[in-house]
Amino acid sequence: MIHAMPSLISLRAFEAAARLGSFKQAAEELSVTPTAVSHHIRSLEEALDLQLFVRETRAVRLTDTGKQLAGRLTIAFTEISDALADVRVSENVLTMTTTPAFGALWLAPRLEDFQKAHPEITVRLETGTAPVDLMRDRRIDLAIRYGGGDGPLLAQTLPHERIGLFGSEKLVSEMDGRIDDATILCTEWEQPDLAPVRLDEWLQAAQFKGRTTIRKFAQEHHVVQCAVAGQGLALLSNVLADDLVARDLLAPFRPDVTVPGRSYKILCLPERRRVRKIARFIEWLEHGLTQPAQANTTDRLQVIQP
To answer: Which Gene3D superfamilies match (predicted)?
Structure first.
């Protein structure tokens, strides 16, 4: 029977080591030495009269009891951190990560609207194609990712996209609905787990059997820049294209022909879903992705709304 609560330092050391899978990394996070982490964990095991780690030659692994305790402690420390964040002005900074294309083409042009609605919240945006481990990187409040399956970090699935062809207004006007010998600009995903959006699906939907030239890029925003420059038609999501269409930088080619795409998903730690700054941002995202772009081209956009 435990008559006294183990020290907070030993609990923090154990939680960090369990979450990161390393005494060394836990020491770096806590700004102490690995020896200190080992000592605190040993003290906790003695206080509980339980073995929490199996110590091997060059590694450590959690026992079943250690796994059970680690999961509860991670939730508890996260809730403590969030409680402190609610009373600290400096914690009104929302740090999020998303793909370069979504960040540049959808999010950045609209962030001013969020800041006007919530001036007390500052958004710090990071972009990249590599997934971020929200369990390990506690700087990140939420992530917006393209595709992927459901999981414990899923907070919200945003509306599904439609895929179509977009080009500069001049090019689309000159083509007059004919795609023969056109240059098609496509994205070839760097992430192997993402199923590609295949041009042949659009061509089949358009009942086209002629010839086209295909140029591939690793990033969607590179595809967009080439399309804006009039170098071809971009195979693109309406989610990313609608703002560009509204600003007359792109125009839909054959807006009557679109194919289903995937969806963007908001990821965050389940225990943080109701933190005020995160909840407000998710609400704003949900609303923004269900509204047409505000411009005189709204009627064209409505054709490809999911």
So the answer is: Periplasmic binding protein-like II, Winged helix-like DNA-binding domain superfamily/Winged helix DNA-binding domain
**Per-residue exposure over 121-150, b if at least 16 CB sit within 10 Å of its own CB, e if not:** bebeeebeeeebebeeeeebbbbbbbebee
Q: What are residue 273's phi and psi, to 5 degrees?
A: -55, -30
The answer to whether 68 touches 97, Cβ cutoff 8 Å, is no
Domain boundaries along the sequence of the chain: 8-86, 88-306
Contacts of 150 (CB under 8 A, 6+ apart): none
- Which tens digit of pLDDT belongs to each residue from 115-146? 999 998 999 999 988 878 888 887 889 999 88
pLDDT at 293 over 70: no
| pLDDT digit string, tens, across residues 159-170 | 888 999 999 999
* Alpha-carbon 30 to chain mean position: 27
Dihedral sign for Cα atoms in the order 176, 177, 181, 184? positive
- Architecture field, domain 88-306: 3-Layer(aba) Sandwich (3.40)
Q: How far apart are CA 96 and CA 141, in angstroms?
A: 6
- What distance lies between CA 262 and its chain's CA centroid? 14
DSSP symbols for 97-152: EE-HHHIIIIIGGGHHHHHHH-TT-EEEEEE-SS---TTT-TT--EEEEES----T
Q: Is the pLDDT of residue 211 over 80?
A: yes
Q: What CATH number matches the domain at 8-86, 3.30.360.10, 3.30.1330.40, 1.10.10.10, 3.10.20.30?
A: 1.10.10.10
User: Which residue bears the tokens 């005020």?
Assistant: 276
